[in-house]
Task: structure prediction
Amino acid sequence: MKEETIYLDNAASTKVDERVMEAMEPYMLETYAVATSDFAYSMGIEAKEALNSAREKIADRLKGDSEEMIFTSGGTESSNLALKGAAEKLLEKEGKDHIVISKIEDFPVLNTAKVLEKKGFEVTYLDVDQEGFVDIEQLEGSLKDETILVSIQHANQEIGTLQDIEKIAEICEDHDVLYHADATHTFGRVPLDVSKIPVDMITLSSHTIHGPRGIGALYVREGTPLKKQMDGGFQENNLRAGVENIPAAVGFGKAVELIDEEENERLEEMRDRLIEGISSKIPDTVLNGPRKKRTPQNANITFQYVEGESITLHLDMRGIAVSTGSACFSKSLEASHVILGIGGDHERAHGSVRFTLGRFNDEEQVKKVIEEAAEVIERLREISPLGKGGE
Ligand SMILES: Cc1ncc(COP(=O)(O)O)c(C=O)c1O
Result:
């Protein structure tokens, strides 16, 4: 990667903070014992202490108990454990077989639900409105005696929509249904307090907050029925077997410690400047997702009459890294299911560009991105076969 790259794809992954790297290193080179050796020798005790201290930092941020925090290999595994674990357990125990998710969930939830559907579970896919909010009435109406679990994300990965998770959790509690929320894009960035909100399970990932990849966690409220998915040893409260990844867990804990409210406010200011700058400088743009109730780091904009893929390639040539919901950009060659889910057509999805901010971005970069984007869009529209300029 070029030195001068302006990286605005922090929802895909973030640069690891050097302080996180420093915190991790001793657990690879000095204290490398496994946590289950704590009964045998002192290095094992130190390793276990480090693991549990990281667990506490992560649990504290959610106001949960550290015993309710299960380390996994990332957000994908956490959501697999939540959905498959609850579905299998409650089918076995109570004969229940119904799951509810939203249409715009990210693939770890969406594709896990599809796998369960193929195995015979019934899945309801809830609609969302034009800004990506779940229809609360439809949610309530979809719940029945056989419903095991509702899985609705805290915020959307592409358009940043922040769901009314309090309301969703209350409804689930009233109907005695489990509620799982994927908080990959909100953890640390948007407050979430499990002592006040009755969420049963929460998916977390480290690499969206400047922590290492390959580590995440599932918050599991005490008493939640869950069947282990990774069989083997008895680690992680006997819910996830395998030698614990202590260096990564320590890094995840450090990453959480480093996020503060000031940083989140700074991201929000940059996000607003980016949205306002682009919409005022470039004609024919559409903001995807709500103006206010969105994550502090996300701006997603459709540039009409231009392909998102061309925009990203041209911005890349100018040293700016962003992503798009265009079909050509995705491995499945399908346009963004999120933009289509909010009622957008294929053109809107193809022209969408996601800008996601992180700790290492600054106001100067935002200014530069607005200027470069204006130039790129103007040039592309001149040669666009999609309408304006190309007519
Ligand atoms: C909403 C959401 N959930 C889960 C994941 C997967 O997390 P991980 O990469 O840690 O498996 C992603 C991707 O980063 C995501 O966007």
In short: Residues 18-258 form a domain with the Aspartate Aminotransferase; domain 2 fold (CATH 3.40.640.10). The pocket of pyridoxal-5'-phosphate is lined by residues 74-76, 106, 108, 153, 157, 182, 184-185, 205, 207, 216 (CB under 6 Å).
